[in-house]
Amino acid sequence: MVSSDQRRRQLAREKYLRQQQRREEAHKKAKRRNAIIASSLAVVLAAGAAAYASVGLADGDKDSGNAASDAVTPTPSEPTSSPEPKPAIDAKAKYTMSLKTSQGDISIAMDAAKTPRTVNSFKHLADKKYFDGTKCHRLTTDGIFVLQCGDPSGDGTGGPGYNIPDENLTALGKAGADGKVTFPAGTVAMANTGQPGTGGSQFFLVHKDTKLPPTYTPFGTMDAAGLKAVQEIAKGGVEGGAPDGAPKKAVTIEKATVSKK
Length: 261
Hints:
By secondary structure, the protein is α+β, with helices and mostly antiparallel strands. It has a domain at 94-260: Beta Barrel (Cyclophilin). The protein has helices at residues 4-55, 116-127, 224-236, and strands at residues 94-101, 104-111, 134-135, 138-140, 146-149, 181-183, 187-190, 203-206, 210-212, 218-222, 244-245, 252-260. The chain has a 10-stranded antiparallel β-sheet. β4 (138-140) and β5 form a beta hairpin.
């Protein structure tokens, strides 16, 4: 017999899945609309393409054939439609996010005192099994060195329907002349859309020291075994031999939990 508590959890899960389905449908409509707009602009863009190529790439960009994009940004999806979850953690405590993946277990230490809203969001999503069964969709092996996860759609466009603010941005020190700081191997940080306060559910695991602008919330550190697992994934490379794309060793988060130490 199903208990009343189990029934409540089942109803909550069904409601959550319906919300996700509505957001996905809205996103598909937006993509179709954007495709129509793009086709109408194609002639104009084609006229300027030759001139653009003759002067090279814009400052800060890199040739995608030689290096990974110097950004860790999910494609902006549909407008946020849900409120940020209410605080439900001990902001003075430390938490552990445990990821059971198809390529090994990863344990991530998180300090709620430094990133309370980020930790609160991950606890909220993990409790709802949001990450379970999702793929780590992006691996970069040149220029920047990260494995990016947390997108339920598996293509870099998904999110939980709300945003959380940036936190702890000064933790890695002062930016150098290039405007960047070093994210040490083992760091776990939030992806965003390139604009402040646009974190959602996507995050990245740094498998080798990486220089990036200090605009990504560093909220955790992998244990030694977790870092080794991610480095093994990186050694496998990217599908098609590119430096940026889906990892050859497919990575699925089978189960994610967040617990207080």
